[in-house]
Amino acid sequence: MKRRIENITKINTLDVEQLALKISFETVLIITLSASILLSTVLSASAAAFESAVAESYVGHKHDESKAIKKTSSISAQQKNNQVIGAEHQIDTLDSKHNNEADEESHQHSAENSAQNVIPVNGSGSEAHEQGSSFSPEKMAIAGISVSAISAQVFTENVYAPGEIKANGYKSYIVSPRTESVVISRHATLGQHVEKGDALVTLFSESVAEAQATYRVAYNDWQRNKKLGKATVSESRLLSSQTDYISAYSRLKAFGLTENAIAQVIKDTAASTDLGELGQYTLIAQRAGAVLSDDFSQGQRVSAGDAIMVLADESELWVEARVSPNKQLNLPKGTQAIVDMAEQSFVATVIQEAHTIDPKTRTRIVRLSVKNIDDRLHPGMFVNVSFSFKTVEKVIAVPESALMRSSDGDWTVFVEDHPGEFTAVEVELGRSLGRYREITGIAPQTRIVTSGAFFVASEIAKAGFDPHGH
Predict the structure, then answer these.
(1) Is 365 in contact with 355 (CB distance < 8 Å)?
(2) 133-155+394-462 CATH choice from 2.40.420.20, 2.60.40.10, 3.30.70.2740, 3.40.50.150
(3) How far apart are the first and last CA of the chain?
(4) I want to staple 379 with a disulfide (CB 3.0 to 4.6 A). Which of 26, 167, 249, 398 is the partner?
(5) Residue 427 and residue 410: Cα distance in Å, rounded?
(6) For the segment 174-193, what is each residue's pLDDT rounded down to a tens digit?
(7) Which of 10, 360, 349 lies closest to 168, judged by CA?
């Protein structure tokens, strides 16, 4: 019995030592408690052995009492052994739980170290990982993300100005009576294209009738005196009749009558039918063009100088661009610009630049000449005019699609430090250079996202990152 107790003690002592080497500080406390239980068990077992020896020495005691004492001692020893086994089981359970927790902690630590090494964007460790995101080549291709290196170049700066198509003043003609008249009939309508010499409108005027009558008389007098000659008619009389004829002819020309119309006045002067035609005259087109306006009605009385028709050659029109006076633009004659209208573009050339400010719009007018290809432009249309200027020095500029607003309102671009890894970097904006924008804050040859920046920002935001590194 004693040897058994000693073996149990040795076994438990070894177990305690092995457990103390494996487990942490918390487990040592549990082992200490178990050791106390084991010690109590050993003392109890020793007491039982002592009682058994005493029972054997006292032979005179009753056999039943001795048997009861031995039975009690055996039961007590068995209970103590059961307690030892239960304590060992608890220790093993705690040890297993601790080992599992240690393994889990080790696994988590390894995962954190692995995560730190996955995306080292613009730095190292978890701090760098929180400032960017990584994209696979397949994902970039599907999202249309393009990356390219930026460099300083000479760009073209575009200056926008609103404009209006105007009739070419050098190729336009205003049709108007030169004396008070009444409209008899029209021969051309609005929008019609006419050629030089085509009839436009027939008018009647008392002044023209009087001038025609005077011309008839002067013409006949001049012809008669010229036939008689100097032998019959004095030189002064001949000169006077000639002067009257020239004056009457010039007056009809001033009223707008053509050579044919004047010749018709003196034709068949004896016929009574011709007398009724006096006072009527027809205005003709002095140049080819389109009828842009015909603000009159038949039977209407019009005054001298009233514009009843406007003809214009629309093969070449004017564009009046209104430029802000705050923009110090050098626009010498011959400077080219682009005129945009309804997704169509035309090349225009500066021909005049006003040196005064329009009192109504507070803008200065720059006049350009544009070829009306396929007759697509017409006076009165509004267009957009873009003047182009090359930068004096090389500048860094990015496409407008590469710029994104940050959460605090700053402009940013996405920089690629490693393939597929992007970080938002704040930049300062400069001049607008057409489809590009001048920026500062990025070194040359830096690779940035030129298209698909919105998708990069949204993916970083969905992943739980601040895409702008704040």
Answers:
(1) no
(2) 2.40.420.20
(3) 76
(4) 167
(5) 8
(6) 999 999 999 999 999 998 99
(7) 349
